[in-house]
Amino acid sequence: MDPDLAFILGLIIGCFAIPSVLSAYSDSRAPRVSALVVLIAGSLILYGVMTKPGGYEIKDIPDTFFGVINRFMP
Predict the structure, then answer these.
(1) By CB atoms within 10 Å of each CB, which of 31, 54, 56, 60 scores lowest?
(2) pTM of the model
């Protein structure tokens, strides 16, 4: 898998997991599925960072995001 794609998917999945975690805590439920989704997102981000030579900087994230969108959208 492309490190840029893994990194961006991890960021997107992680952003979607935040409301799920907050909802579980506010309803006094155990965030089981949310924790699994956060683990998957963290693994994708870690894979992307570890396999890209030089890693990522904060200023590179928007360019990487739109680069991935341009590559995979027709």
Answers:
(1) 54
(2) 0.89
